[in-house]
Amino acid sequence: KDARASKGCGLGLNFLIPILDRIRYVQSLKEIVIDVPEQSAVSLDNVTLQMDGVLYLRILDPFKASYGVEDPEYAVTQLAQTTMRSELGKLTLDKVFRERESLNANIVHSINQASDEWGIRCLRYEIKDIHVPPRVKESMQMQVEAERKKRATVLESEGTREAAINVAEGCKQAQILASEGEKAEKINNAAGEAQAILAKAEAKAKAIRLLSDALTEQNGNAAASLSVAEQYVSAFSSLAKESNTILLPSNTGDISGMVTQVCMHAPLFVFILSAGSLFTELLLDLYLHR
To answer: Model-level pTM greater than 0.85?
Structure first.
């Protein structure tokens, strides 16, 4: 009979009866590494893949591993292959590459559920290589290139859009600043013109007051008569320079009579003397020919 077939030989010193007892199986309790041969599997989207892997296991119960299954390593290898095909059939090609860790964990869990009766524990399973058909590989490369071109086009369009927005925003700000500058310039010009007009009016009013005060003083009428007479004489010097038609009063040479009229209408001539020379000539002409 086999050596203690009912319970097997334990650790330490064991005694066997010659001829009657013999060692039938020897199991190693170390971690065992098994290469899973390459096999084909079909994914959920009907793509045929060639895959191989590495299986790491350990014998926990030598008795079950010896008498529970004929060849434990072969049995676990076949179980790993069938489980891998089953798990791949649940995933599409894209998910196979993205979820390799999840796929490995599912294979380990499925193997352990079946290998408990064999006294074997699967520690981990790793997929080594995944080979796809050449045409599928070319289409995958084209898809990757198209995706990269798409991202590049999107990024370029976003850059162009941002540049256009920045340019438009810059033009908008420039127009706003230019309009504000033009507005401020107009306001400043209007304020300057208003101040100039006000200053001229104040100067004229002050000149009229001074002239009026001067006329009320002693000999003021004589001074006004002298000034009007001087302007009256100088006005004749500019006659016929701008036009050939000349209108003269009937008493052109009677300067004393003209001065007498000025003295009679002193307030009017106060305003006339405060005005400009051209305006003075016009007012004098209208007054003398009324």
So the answer is: no
